[in-house]
Amino acid sequence: MEGGGVDHLAEERQKSRFDVDEMKIVWAGSRHAFEVSDRVARLVASDPAFRKDNRNLLSRKELFKNTLRKAAYAWKRIMELRLTEEEAAKLRFFIDEPAYTDLHWGMFVPAIKGQGTEEQQQKWLPLAYKMQIIGCYAQTELGHGSNVQGLETTATFDPQTDEFIINSPTLTSSKWWPGGLGKVSTHAVAYARLIVNGQDHGVHGFIVQLRSLDDHMPLPGITVGDIGMKFGSGAYNTMDNGVLRFDHVRIPRNQMLMRVLQVTREGKVVQSDVPRQLIYGTMVYVRQTIVSDASSALSRAVCIATRYSAVRRQFGSQKGGPETQVIDYKTQQSRLFPLLASAYAFRFVGEWLKWLYTDVTQRLQANDFSTLPEAHACTAGLKSLTTSATADAIEECRKLCGGHGYLTSSGLPELFAVYIPACTYEGDNTVLLLQVARFLMKTVSQLGSGKQPVGSTAYMSRAEHLMQCRCSAQRVEDWLKPDVVLEAFEARALRMSVACAQNLSKFSNPEEGFAELSADLAEAAIAHCQLIVVSKFVEKLQQDIPGQGVKQQLQTLCFVYSLHLLHKHQGDFLSTGCITPKQASLANEQLRSLYSQVRPNAIALVDAFNYTDHYLGSVLGRYDGNVYPTLYEDAWKDPLNDSVVPDGYHEYLRPVLKQQLRNARL
Length: 666
Ligand SMILES: CCCCCCCC/C=C\CCCCCCCC(=O)SCCNC(=O)CCNC(=O)[C@H](O)C(C)(C)COP(=O)(O)OP(=O)(O)OC[C@H]1O[C@@H](n2cnc3c(N)ncnc32)[C@H](O)[C@@H]1OP(=O)(O)O
Ligand SMILES: Cc1cc2nc3c(=O)[nH]c(=O)nc-3n(C[C@H](O)[C@H](O)[C@H](O)COP(=O)(O)OP(=O)(O)OC[C@H]3O[C@@H](n4cnc5c(N)ncnc54)[C@H](O)[C@@H]3O)c2cc1C
Fold this sequence. Notes:
Elements: H1 10-15, H2 20-28, H3 31-45, H4 60-80, H5 85-95, H6 100-115, H7 118-129, E1 135-138, E2 154-158, E3 163-167, E4 175-176, E5 187-196, E6 199-209, E7 222-226, E8 242-246, E9 249-252, E10 261-263, E11 269-271, H8 281-311, H9 330-365, H10 372-400, H11 412-419, H12 429-445, H13 463-468, H14 482-504, H15 510-516, H16 518-541, H17 550-568, H18 570-575, H19 581-598, H20 602-607, H21 613-616, H22 627-636, H23 649-665
Parallel strand pairs: 1-5, 2-5
Antiparallel strand pairs: 2-3, 3-9, 4-8, 5-6, 7-8, 10-11
Helix pairs in contact: 2-3, 3-5, 4-5, 6-7, 6-8, 8-9, 8-10, 9-10, 9-16, 9-17, 10-11, 10-12, 10-16, 12-14, 12-16, 14-16, 16-17, 17-19
Protein name: Acyl-coenzyme A oxidase
GO cellular component, one term: peroxisome
GO molecular function: acyl-CoA oxidase activity; FAD binding; fatty acid binding
């Protein structure tokens, strides 16, 4: 996307055998999405106000103030340029700095939309859209995050005043972690146990004002602050994750989000026909967006590692010629190309998940709740799978860049630090896999009952075949047949689920059995989620994809993704009898040959992400590949190099050196 200067990767770019511009559109999702993304990315990159290369040098206070400045300036630009919601979201994305706005737009607004009544939406949403109030999502407490039903904050109805009294009865009931809470939010959707007439009705959401809209001071009864520094420098420390305590704070009754459950003026609790699980709806929404985010973070790391692998040369010079580009080593390819393929795979499964979410939302509006469990299982499982894979992949990309990957200017350390909490927030990844496993066990247990599994578990309706089928691959080329690959993944996933179900049935107490077998259950959930990713990639390839060579590249990547998983999880495939050792070795042979096909296209495949150098934030990943002079010049800009002799020389170095001199003379 960058222009000008010598292109050290030009030769690489000439090697590619497909239309990169068309691939850019496939990656973006549509021509429209590409144009918006391209325009907004350039806007951010060309505005010095969005500079981010100094983040690691700032103290926490400076860093945070700088984030506030950027967010305010971004809001000003959004207004001035009359950006659409889509463009504004892209602007925040390319600014590339976690901020309170993520939670305001990403959770506070969706929580009101999903759980508020029409009337509540009409009252609160316009204020939130204009940012006249800023909100956060205050669910997690010091004592409980995963166990939402274990939250301790209370909201007790007072029929005399028609109010709820929000209270933090214990230290562990303090809200702890919500982003945007510590220093910014004026309001929160706070989750608390609803108590009416002494009866506990479980956890619900309440809109609570936290700070004065005049002077930003906390309102009476509210104690609020930041929870302190987090992993890495810069990184997620731009966010004010907060602590919050309520001391009998009173809010009007109509500030309980009442789409699921209503409390009347008389103190009657009325359950609507909307299922209770809708209270968790905001999490379903965010988990879905996190899958798309995973493909962004992963593609970014892969872009850096791929470009640098083509620039970096090590060993293998023949007769004084150039040394080997490290990207030509098969080991480098076998570590890097599966990550490249995963970036595309996660992109497409993210697109599908967005469709699924839109579909379930439309059904919910029409009071059809039948697909909610499926939406929960898919968002939870794919969030877990893609974030775990991406976190590991960013670290792998750092190692793929050798020593220079460890420099902050590679962009990889900060990306890693900012990304890894995705494995924890919005649901710990193991806890989420166990949710998928519960869903799978339920589906398996109903197989004999005549109830047809649908959606992501539709393959289970072919249980009889899948439990005993044998893989038909006999030659290396057979592993390029989508049906052969899909069937192997389906059989593996089903057999692992069925094995768990059989083992569970040996326990007289199912909950005890579930706890005892939870490690196996999590593995079965992973197998199921990997199948979803593979099958959505295969489905994508059934679409009409224009552009010379584009579809063929995607086919190659689809098989790289599937066959590398098959290789990595050979144990599962072999032990469930889905494939034979001979077939596993044929698959691996095919994989090696696919790497050779990816090789000449690798640079173009990462160019298709269309990232600006500003967004990448990496000397190693520069578009023009001009790595060494930039690294060299950048080093001199470090504040440590401001003086030739360091501060502290006279106090701490000289005395040591002089001491040694005296000793030497003795
Ligand atoms: C270099 C710069 C780069 C910048 C990049 C910037 C990018 C920014 C990107 C992104 C911004 C994101 C910023 C971070 C945001 C983080 C926010 C948060 O973390 S908010 C807190 C999340 N908290 C959790 O997720 C708790 C996890 N726990 C739970 O979800 C539940 O409690 C769970 C699933 C563990 C259930 O616990 P149980 O066992 O006590 O369940 P019971 O409450 O009794 O409900 C059980 C029934 O409900 C269903 N269920 C559970 N969850 C459901 C759901 N979500 N939807 C539908 N059904 C659900 C289950 O399937 C089950 O159904 P049946 O009874 O079997 O039919
Ligand atoms: C950067 C960041 C931002 C966040 N932002 C917000 C926010 O905006 N709003 C908000 O409300 N919260 C937020 N959170 C909180 C986050 O949602 C929780 O930390 C998360 O849900 C995990 O819960 P926990 O901390 O209780 O982990 P725990 O549940 O205590 O996990 C600890 C360990 O126990 C294991 N474990 C727990 N339960 C089980 C089980 N049943 N079976 C097997 N193993 C189990 C886990 O796998 C994990 O290994 C944020 C967290 C972070 C790190």
